[in-house]
Amino acid sequence: MGLSRSSTGAELVKEHKQNDNACVIALAGNPNVGKSTVFNLLTGLNQHTGNWPGKTVSNARGKCRSINREYELVDIPGTYSLLAQSEEERIARDFICFGGEEAVLLVCDAVCLERNMNLLIQAAEASKKLLVCVNLMDEAKRKGIKLDLERLSELLNLPVIGISAKKKSSRDVILAALDKVAEDRPQDEYEVEYPAEIENAIQSLKDQVQKISGGKLRTRWLCLKLLEGDSEIIKQANEYLNGELEKAEELLYAAHTEREKLIEQGIDSEKFQDMIATSISKRAAELARAAVSHEQGAYSTRDRKIDKLLTGKLVGYPLMLLLLLLVFYITIAGANYPSQLLSTALFALEEKIRLLLTSLNAPWWFTGLLVDGVYRVLAWVVSVMLPPMAIFFPLFTLLEDAGYLPRVAYNLDNPFHKCKACGKQALTMCMGFGCNAAGVIGCRIIDSERERLLAILTNSFVPCNGRFPMLITVMTMFFTGTVIGGASNFLSALMLTAFIVLSVVFSFLATKLLSSTLLKGKPSSFVLEMPPYRRPNIAQVIVRSIFDRTLFVLGRAVAVAAPAGAVIWLMAHVHIYGESLISIFANFLDPLGKFMGLDGVILIAFILGFPANEIVLPIMLMAYTAAGSLTEPGTIMEIKEILLQNGWSWITALCTMLFSLFHWPCSTTVLTIKKETGSRKWTLLSAILPTIAGFICCSLAAALARLITA
Questions:
Q1: Which label site among 412, 511, 534, 539 has the fewest CB atoms less than 10 Å from its CB?
Q2: pTM for the structure as a whole
Q3: How many CB atoms lie within 10 A of CB 13?
Q4: Which residues are paired to 391 by β-bridges?
């Protein structure tokens, strides 16, 4: 399907261009080359995010100024090729190919420059002004990699600069190079030597194409697209040339004739694309040999040895589980004390707010609603959620920056393919451990609509960070808390890891079920970049994980927890025939709860905890103690005593943990699913699937436990 006129590359530039005197720069590159670091270096805080016009793919935009000129940088989606397959790749291609008189800043990775050459050559063929920025020069030097950037610039006939984007001095280097590119005339066309059959066809069209394009588009590049018969690109080019292409009947007839000649020579559309790709790859290899050398012949031997260990069939999975165990252990052990301090401080502030409202003669119901309802729920959410997130997200980001998460995706690619799903689902599943809503948004990286739906519908099978406190508290009270010292934290982490593995297994089962019924289809293949292992910038990781992830997720939880606190307080204080609404609903659900190894209070707590999983346990305690408001966090033993007095046993604890693992997603995730799918049907199914899994698991576990203890 061709893009509409309002989505052409030139008009996308106009959408972003807020100052007619500014020069719009497309910031392009492969994934994992430090493109975002370059963007942040140039724009600082003068940036904002949004969506492409009519698209769900997000982008970052920012301004910067050199001595001579103002620039507007648009961070286009990372791509390996301009032969677009996904929505992100189409946007990147359109911005580069139809960006008017603007320039492209192409970021490459000095450590693996060879991998970047394909995109570099394609961008050089299509762009009129291109600046090649080779990032991570310092890291390449440490690895013994020598880059002859002058030789590369000479062979490409393009400006090439080397930088280390983490150094502030690189900003001036980039801006000075951008100034020169912006001021110079359009660069000469970069020519790749294609097979003789294709070169002859190009020559037969070249003059006519040059006359029609008027220098607005690269001649050889447009010839190739006409010969390929790429209807989408031809439509885009026609719109960019104000309809001149469709008027050139002689040119279109000549292109058709040349395509027929190629077919007669055995070169159909697929063979044509293969020949183009092969020629580009051959040229990329030549450039790499000329520009890259190694002080040590096997500079990547260490990386390959580590990969063999981390992705090996025998060792890869156990190491993955050990790393997961270590992350959970550090999170559990490190969050206990800060959580207690935060809770003490927040609940101490509660009394001051209450005294203030009393001194202002506020009605008792208003004080109760605001303090015992809204504020107390917020205090619970912040004190329970913030410390573990502040530890978990930086650890997760460290693994991401070090280059380990793509190895996790590689390990899980085969199991997902067996479930007829895309291996990229492994990455979105990992995002779900932090926040299911973030995992759902991350599903945009999956090209196939069917496979994207599979990933969205099953993301809630893995527990988000908001469910961890409940799981950890219950398992500590009933299973691991009797162990003295640090061993308790280790056993809790071990048990939590086992539950996480169970959630991953159920995620595979649900994916397999859906791909065999409602969402049948074949799994697609995808290119997975194995970035080199890097030493993460600890300070940058902490800042990024806290501001971009921890506070972002916490802010959304707080936004839904505040009104939930008011509703919970009202349900506890509105009585019908002397019984609160919470008690009425709990009694109604009690038979179903007992069948599942739970009780009515536990079920109503999960229902009222729909806005935020963190408030499920305090709602239980409120209902059990008939306190009329959420109970202040006490010691583990105090909470356990309340639960035991209300009929809890190890069976109840086990079933509660299972239901905490598998039940409907929180309100934030549900709203995100609705936005991403645009369908009530799929949104409802995404909530029903994990709930059914939880019902089955709890019922079977309760029946088996009763049989054992009978």
A1: 539
A2: 0.66
A3: 20
A4: none
Higher pLDDT, 379 or 299: 379
Q: Is 100 left (phi over 0), alpha (psi -120 to 50) or beta?
A: left
CA distance 333 to 502: 22
Helices 650-661, 487-516: axis angle to 10 degrees equals: 50
CB atoms within 10 A of CB 242: 9
**pLDDT, mean over the chain:** 82
Tokens coding 66: 């050199």
Pairing relationship of beta strands 160-162 and 130-135 according to DSSP bridges: parallel
Q: What is the DSSP string of 62-118?
A: EEEE-SS-EEEEEEPPP-S-SS--SHHHHHHHHHHHT-TT-EEEEEEEGGGHHHHHH
Using DSSP bridges, classify how beta strands 58-65 and 47-51 pair: parallel, antiparallel or unpaired. antiparallel
Rg from Cα positions in the chain: 29
Q: What separation in angstroms does the CA of 690 have from each of 31, 511, 675?
A: 33, 12, 19
Q: What is the C-alpha to C-alpha distance for residues 102 and 96, in angstroms, rounded to an integer?
A: 9
* Tokens (6 digits) for 376: 């107390």
**N-to-C CA span, the chain:** 64
Q: Which of 38-52, 432-446, 505-519 has the lowest mean pLDDT?
A: 38-52
Q: How far is CA 262 from the centre of its chain?
A: 43
Angle (deg, nearest 10), helices 376-402 and 316-359: 150
- pLDDT tens per residue across span 376-386: 878 877 777 77
Count other C-beta atoms under 10 Å from residue 149's C-beta: 17
User: Is the distance from CB of 353 to CB of 375 less than 8 angstroms?
Assistant: yes
Checking if the pLDDT of 11 tops 60, the result is: no
> Worst-scoring range by mean pLDDT, 96-100, 304-308, 619-623?
96-100
Amino acid letter, 20: D
Q: How far apart are CA 118 and CA 287, in angstroms?
A: 10
| Tokens (6 digits) for 615 | 């408030």
Amino acid at 540: Q
Question: For position 300, what pLDDT does the model report?
Answer: 58
Of 2, 162, 191, 19, the closest CA to residue 98 belongs to: 2
Q: 464, 466, 465, 483: which is closest to 475 by C-alpha? A: 483
Contact 598, 656 (CB under 8 A): yes
Give 295's pLDDT tier (boundaries 50, 70, 90): low
Burial state string for 42-81 with b = 16 or more CB within 10 A and e = fewer than 16: bbeeebeeeebeebebebbbbbbebeeeebbbbbbbbbbb
| Cβ proximity of 512 and 536 under 8 Å | no
What is the bridge-based pairing of β-strands 103-109 and 70-75? unpaired
18: enclosing H helix or E strand:
none
Instruction: Give the dihedral sign, CA 293/298/301/304.
Output: positive
26 and 113 Cβ atoms separated by less than 8 Å? no
Q: Give exposure, 550-578, as e/b (b: 16+ Cβ within 10 Å).
A: bbebbebbbebbbebbebbbbbbbeeeee
Report the C-alpha gap between 567 and 3 in whole angstroms. Answer: 47
DSSP string of 608-649?
Answer: HTTT-GGGHHHHHHHHHHT-SSPPPP--HHHHHHHHHHTT--
d(CA 247, CA 238): 9
Distances (CA, A) of 481 to 31, 488, 491: 45, 6, 9
Dihedral sign for Cα 642, 648, 649, 655, please.
negative
Q: How far apart are CA 450 and CA 452, in angstroms?
A: 5
**Tokens at 448, concatenated:** 């196939």
Confidence of residue 633 (pLDDT cuts 50, 70, 90): low
The two structure tokens encoding residue 435: 């926040």
Give the C-alpha separation, 342 to 350, whole Å. 13
